[in-house]
Amino acid sequence: MYTKRNYGFWMTFNWSKKPFILGLIYSLLIYGASHLIDFHIYIPWQPISILGIAVAFYLGFKNNSSYDRTWEARKIYGGIVNSSRSFGAAIVAFVQGAKSDELKKELIYRHVAWLTALRYQLRLSRPWEHNEDRLSKLYAPTVCEAYTNSLDQELENYITKEEIVELDGKTNTATQIMKKQSQRLQELRDQDAFEDFRHMELHQLVVSFYTDQGKAERIKNFPFPRQYASTALWLTLMFALFVPLGLLDIAKSTSGWVYWVCPVLSALIIWVFFLMEKIGDYSENPFEGTYNDVPITSISRGIEIDLREMIDDNDIPPAIQDENGFLL
């Protein structure tokens, strides 16, 4: 996620400069051929403008749908934040007994382990995601979790090695950690660490965690429908091919520098449409680990800080800071 007020123009242009450069080369070839060898193939601008309006509407639909996916992902993690705080407060208030401090720490740490496993799973690559960008570090401050750290090594900070061994071979680590949490809560109920009513309250929070995990996995594992994404790209490309020919219809009656401004204008129009397409394309997958992601690493760290402060823990890590305006 970008945290500064605005993306800089040159930063935006550098990110999306390829369509402008290719569009400029393509336009110059057409205008050069028309000027040097009397190659006058042009299309009236009116039908091209109608096509441009249709493409713009379609790109607007795609961008709105992509934004909905990103905003839903943020709401899901907002729900995880709220439920996690409620879980921490309930653990601190409900768990009683001689070893209550140890039990509170165990349950809080296991919940942080679930958060850790979940964000690792959500950052795993999918074929439809922009994996090359999170690896090249073009704008992202660090490479995503799945490529920099071992999940087992990080889980050792929160759960026992025996529990980690039990997770070996499991398809969904986060699911299994939360299952273990549920089993442990039942064991504590059987030991009279809290009564039935409080146990049911804690179980309902476990249910809410599974619900939010499932919602996040739905976004992660079901891409923005490829027919919509592909059509937007091909329509934009088709429009871009016609733009220089349409402006040539206008420029044919001009001469001098005005004539040679038209290829630049063609390239700018092509760039604007491809920029809109690319913004939607990079908003489809809010957990892919690139620069427009929902910052689940930072959110998870914030939850960890809140929960560990509730039990007056030691060596609490600091909040994650952005790097050059980017927060993961």
Task: Pick out its properties.
mainly alpha; 328 residues; 13 helices
What does this protein structure show overall?
With 328 residues, this protein is mostly helical. It has a domain at 77-224 and 295-328. The protein has helices at residues 9-15, 17-36, 45-94, 100-122, 131-136, 145-148, 151-155, 161-167, 173-190, 196-221, 226-251, 257-281, 296-310. Helix 11 packs antiparallel against helix 12. It is elongated. The mean pLDDT is 88.
**Proportion of helical residues:** over 70%
Distance N to C terminus: 6 Å
Order of helices and strands: HHHHHHHHHHHHH
Largest sheet: none
Secondary structure layout plus pairing:
Layout: H1 9-15, H2 17-36, H3 45-94, H4 100-122, H5 131-136, H6 145-148, H7 151-155, H8 161-167, H9 173-190, H10 196-221, H11 226-251, H12 257-281, H13 296-310
